[in-house]
Amino acid sequence: MPDARISIVVPALNEEKLIGNLLSIFDDDIKKQFYIELIISDGGSSDSTVQIAQKYADRILIHKENWKQNISGGRNSGASIANGDVLIFLNADTFIKDISSFLSGILKIFQDADVIAIACPVKVFENEEILSDRLFHSFYNTYVKLLNKCCVGMGRGECHIVRKSFFEKEGRYDEKLYAGEDFDLYKRLKKHGKIHFASNLVVYESPRRYRKFGYAKVFWDWAKNSVWITLFGKSISQEWTQVR
Length: 244
What we know:
This protein is an alpha/beta fold.
């Protein structure tokens, strides 16, 4: 879609259980109203992810090389064919309740030319949320908001929203990073302009990783990789375990 204003990029790998829930919110009316193109960047799925994506996507890229593509590579591949001025990267296990209001909110925020990227609060799917989810995400969303206000840029990897010009200017996602690539990108973007934390633009995600590993391990993995990237420019994790 050459006249696209917004490019939605969804990296995916064996996401047949959840990807349809996300893609279905981008129906033809929404695409026309907001000049959206929907790009799926598949990392070489062995399930029916691609077949499901074909029902909704405008363009699909499939990784066919004999080396494993990480999520940074998947996002970069999708962005490389994007036509929109605004890039929205969404993980395949996310969901947005009111997509029209969400997209309208993004365009309104970007009326401020100083804003180059947007960070969103993330919560667990409402029908699966338990007390530990509410407590952790309340804390972590506040933490992300404060980071963007006081010192370094930060955006939850579940949803990144960025002006394409600055995404390209900063060299896109660092494909050498197997974790913490979200922190790294927003840290670099912060040097060029304002990152707006949009408290009203909520993105919902599957709790599958928290259920498998627990919040203590997940947070420790995030924290140690962020510190390692800040100090040494590389992630301490050499792979990111899939949870499906």
